């Protein structure tokens, strides 16, 4: 099968645990693109720290960001597709986080906002610095220049497990998904990586069987099951592996490269 659109998760998939792109991954992606494949990064990140990865590989096209909530044209920086949420409906979640000392951020397509940015703990500040982000102070809703697309809570694995268990009991208007051990995200009920990938594929004229997707976490399951070929990384939880068609090597062993060599580059 010829795969014409290749969707890659970023953290835990394309990049290693130090947020680095291996030379093997880069070269195989560039070769596949040279052979005619179109790449799209599908990530929980925003476009601000996703587009530079594509540009560093010499690629254009699109990035699907915020777990599918905003798709952005790399060249023009235009938001070509998004799933806005009603910001006011986040208030019970914001109040809960404030009452329980849980860090959170509010995301527009290009903006990242937190409570009192200058008072962030070293742990929280280091988390943002690791992925090259600088949060701003959360303004009143009326002052946001873009629609809100994602809300994220951040904490220890135990804290996020407990938070997810609690919020699952709420009558929530949002799609809730774990994008990592330490993150719990809320988005529009129709938003997901799979939904955004499907909309982009249809826009680009690709059939599902022409789409190959790779990911490693729960927020990747929808795109792995949409794609004609869904590949999970070896560092994925068992539920993610079960949703995939096959498993490649881990993100620390250039699993993306090995999958591309098997299915795209040498075909």
UniProtKB/TrEMBL annotation:
Q: Does the keyword Nucleus apply?
A: no
Q: Does the keyword Mitochondrion apply?
A: no
- Any one GO molecular-function label of the UniProt entry: hydrolase activity
EC top class, in one word?
A: hydrolase
- Xref: CDD domains: HAD_Pase (cd07516)
Q: Which PROSITE patterns match?
A: COF_1
Gene3D superfamilies recorded for this chain? 3.30.1240.10, HAD superfamily/HAD-like (3.40.50.1000)
Could you tell me which InterPro entries the record lists for this protein? Cof, HAD-like_sf, HAD-SF_hydro_IIB, HAD_sf
Key words, A-Z: Hydrolase
Q: Which residues cross the membrane?
A: none
Give its E.C. classification number: 3.1.3.-
* Entries under PANTHER family matching the protein: HAD SUPERFAMILY HYDROLASE-LIKE, TYPE 3, PHOSPHOSERINE PHOSPHATASE
**Which NCBIfam families does the record associate with it?**
Cof-subfamily, HAD-SF-IIB
Could you identify this protein by its name? Cof-type HAD-IIB family hydrolase
Question: Which organism's genome codes for this protein?
Answer: Paenibacillus shunpengii
């Amino acid at each position: 099968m010829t795969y014409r659109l290749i969707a890659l998760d970023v953290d835990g998939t394309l990049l290693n645990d130090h947020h680095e792109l291996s030379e093997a991954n880069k070269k195989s992606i560039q070769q596949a693109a040279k052979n005619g494949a179109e790449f799209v990064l599908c990530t929980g990140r925003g476009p601000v720290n996703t587009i530079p990865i594509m540009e560093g590989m010499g690629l254009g096209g699109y990035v699907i960001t915020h777990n599918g909530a905003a798709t952005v044209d790399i060249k023009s920086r235009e938001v070509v597709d998004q799933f806005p949420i009603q910001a006011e409906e986040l208030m019970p979640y914001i109040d809960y986080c404030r009452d329980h000392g849980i860090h959170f951020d509010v995301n527009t397509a290009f903006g990242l906002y937190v409570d009192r940015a200058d008072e962030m703990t070293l742990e929280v500040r280091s988390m943002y610095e690791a992925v090259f982000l600088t949060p701003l102070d959360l303004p009143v809703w009326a002052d946001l220049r873009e629609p809100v697309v994602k809300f994220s809570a951040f904490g220890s694995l135990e804290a996020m497990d407990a938070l997810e268990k609690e919020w699952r009991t709420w009558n929530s208007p949002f799609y809730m998904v774990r994008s990592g051990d330490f993150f719990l995200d809320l988005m529009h009920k129709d938003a997901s990586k799979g939904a955004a990938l499907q909309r982009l594929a249809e826009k680009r004229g690709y059939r599902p069987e022409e789409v190959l997707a790779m990911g490693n976490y729960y927020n990747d399951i929808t795109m792995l099951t949409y794609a004609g070929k869904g590949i999970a990384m070896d560092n994925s939880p068992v539920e993610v592996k079960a949703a995939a068609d096959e498993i490649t090597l881990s993100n620390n062993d250039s699993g993306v490269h090995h999958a591309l060599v098997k299915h795209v580059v040498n075909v």
